[in-house]
Amino acid sequence: MHKGIKKYSSYNLLFFLKTAPDINKEQSNLYLALAIYLLGLLFIIIEVIVPHGVTGFLGIIGILSGIVLVYLTGPPSYSIYLGIFTVIALPSFFYLVYKKMQLKGGLQPSSADYSSTVADDYINLIGQKGIALTPLRPSGLVLIDNKKVDAVSERDIIEKGETVVVSKVEGIRIVVKKI
Questions:
Q1: pLDDT in the model for residue 12
Q2: Mind giving me the DSSP string for the chain?
Q3: Considering only 49-63, 98-112, 149-163, which range has the smallest mean pLDDT?
Q4: Which domains, from first to last, does the chain contain?
Q5: pTM for this one?
Q6: In this structure, is the dihedral angle defined by the CA atoms of residues 100, 106, 110 and 113, taken in order, positive or negative?
């Protein structure tokens, strides 16, 4: 940081400390409780932006601790206001973020007619013959149409070099059996 900025920041801090009104212990505890609550809100917002789990947990703990501390240190109405704000504002915030991400294409609902080109290519293998390149116990490599593919034996252990046929395809799982 530039020396001038440091100097300017420290002057502002000293000016604030000299001109700040005297705060008694109860008020400082209330401000600390509100700071913990706001820190919890910040952690929740960070959790929405960068999902990790830990920040969300810390955010929930911070919000609940802040509400309890406000109740213990300040007027009870403050904690009621914070509770109402938390119950109404946080779900509304999450809903708006969800809708915005949906509009940008970040979250797409899954569709039942989804298909993969890889799975479609494997469907064409049903009924084709191949040779086991490795033992299939129950999975291994099979050479089908001069392509190496991972396959799973239907029932039996298939030894290396045996001839197999593709009996079914389940997504990207190729199931073979001995001929």
A1: 54
A2: --HHHHHHHHHHHHHHHHHSPP--HHHHHHHHHHHHHHHHHHHHHHHHHS--SHHHHHHHHHHHHHHHHHHHHS-HHHHHHHHHHHHHHHHHHHHHHHHHHHHHTSS----TT---HHHHHHHTTTT-EEEESS-BSSEEEEEETTEEEEEEESSS-B-TT-EEEEEEEETTEEEEEE-
A3: 98-112
A4: 24-104 (no CATH), 117-178 (2.40.50.140)
A5: 0.46
A6: positive
